[in-house]
Each structure stands twice: as C-alpha cells, then as structure tokens.
Amino acid sequence: MVLKEVGSHIRLPIVIGLNEAQAIAIELDHIVPNRPMTHDLFRSFAAAFQYKVDHVLITDLSEGVFFSKIVCTKDGKTYEIDSRPSDAVAIAVRFNAQIYCVKKVLSEAGVEVVDEGEPESTVRPKRSRASSAKPKSGFSDFSLDKLNQMLEDALKKEDYEKAAKIRDELNRRQG
Predict the structure, then answer these.
(1) Where is region (Disordered) located (predicted)?
(2) Domain-located, residue 121
(3) What tens digit of pLDDT does each residue of 35-78 get?
(4) Which domain holds residue 61?
(5) Residue 39 near residue 59, CB atoms below 8 Å
C-alpha cells in the first residue's frame, strides 16, 4: 500500500498482507461481498453502538513495523484503538475517515516521488495506467450477460480478485 501526502510528492509505502489489500480494494472498488468481511463487521458494530470513526493516525515505525491507531468518538468521548495500519486503512475507507501520519514516521519512511506527468488527483495512478495499457483482460471474448454471471459467481465464491478483473472489463466496455 502506498499512501500519498496531500499537496506534496511524498509517498509512504507500507507492506501489507494480501487479505488486507483485498479488503481495501473491495471497498474502494464498491464491490459488495455476499458475506461481510471483518472490516465490515467493525463498521456494523460501530454503527450499532453509535461509534464514529473520526480518523486514523499512523503513529510510529519501529524495526520496520508500522503502528497506528483508529480514533473513534462516542458521546463526546474519544477512544484510540491500537491497530495495524492495513486494518486501520481498511476501516478508514469504510467510514470515509481521514488518514494521518505523524511527521517523524513520514520523514523516516516517506519517499519523494517526482513525476511531472502524474495527475495530482489520481488515487491509484499505477492501476489506471496498467489497465489502460492492457489490451486484453482475459475476459474480452465474453458477452456482457456471461460477464455479469461470472461476476456473480466470483462474488459468491468470494474470489474478489477475479471479481475485480471482471468488473474492470465491464467498466472498460461501458466507457
């Protein structure tokens, strides 16, 4: 996962697990799994008990391991929940919460990336460039009906990587 500092070319790369990356991508891509994932359960729990996720804060870096907190509020009280950054980000995207990083961590682990051709507002530029560079997705020979059926099957099997590829092909065809 690579986080971008607002208004600069600083990036914060954080290595995360496949499941956490999938949880983030599913929410960003608006894919609805048949059964709730762990981060969706957190969202449901928070809603049931009127907790609000205010923001996520990446707080520390020690021996290559990042630390973060999910900052929640309820009835005027603030609660900080210790979390891995990958889980914190997966929850932040579900609550549309801001993600912050302390300057110390950003200065230690941040990388300056200067690419004049990169649009400032792009959330995931590498993915969009890669998808436009690929003429074939592996699904280009299927009809729209078949693709929709395959998408439904992939979601039922919780094969979200395949579902995302099928969704990308459907989006590509719709312009």
Answers:
(1) 116-140
(2) no
(3) 888 898 999 999 999 999 999 999 999 988 999 999 999 999 99
(4) 2-112
(5) no
